Amino acid sequence: MTSVRTYALIYVALILLATGKFVFFHFDGIFKYWMAITGTLILAATKTTLIAGYFQHLKDEPRSVSYLMLTALFMVLLLTLAAGYSIQ
């Protein structure tokens, strides 16, 4: 079982990562648009990993459940790409 201290640290990390998005887009003299988009995607992936791993307790599950989730994510991405291609 994960302690309250760990959850508090994850929460603070999520707040800091969310602040990163603000920094990327409001300091446009430092970051170009493509750098802000790339940084935001990396921050979003990191936040998603922390939320799924700790708050949804996937890190304590058997690896088969994690592989099932990754397969589902891959299929959603394929469907999104197919839908985007069909719209063009």
Entry keywords:
membrane, 2 domains, transmembrane, transmembrane helix, cell membrane, mainly alpha, 88 residues, 0% strand
If you had to describe this structure to a student in words, what would you say it looks like?
This protein has 88 residues and is an all-alpha fold. It folds into 2 domains: 1-56; 62-88. 81% of the residues lie in helices and 0% in strands. The protein has helices at 4-26, 33-55, 63-87. It starts with a helix and ends with a helix. The mean pLDDT is 88. It holds the Pfam family COX4_pro. This is Cytochrome C oxidase subunit IV family protein. It is found in: Cell membrane.
Number of domains: 2
Taking pLDDT < 50 over at least 5 consecutive residues as the criterion, the unreliable ranges are none
- Main beta sheet strand tally, sense and closure: none
The radius of gyration over CA amounts to: 17 Å
Q: Based on helices, strands and strand pairing, what is the structural class?
A: mainly alpha
Task: List SSEs in N-to-C order.
Answer: HHH
Distance between the termini: 48 Å
Report the strand count.
Answer: 0
Helical residues, percent: over 70%
Q: Can you count the helices?
A: 3
Strand content: under 5%
- Average per-residue pLDDT, rounded, comes to 88
- Write down the overall geometry: flat
Pfam family, one: COX4_pro
Keywords: Cell membrane, Membrane, Transmembrane, Transmembrane helix
InterPro entries: Cyt_c_oxidase_su4_prok (IPR005171)
Membrane topology: Multi-pass membrane protein
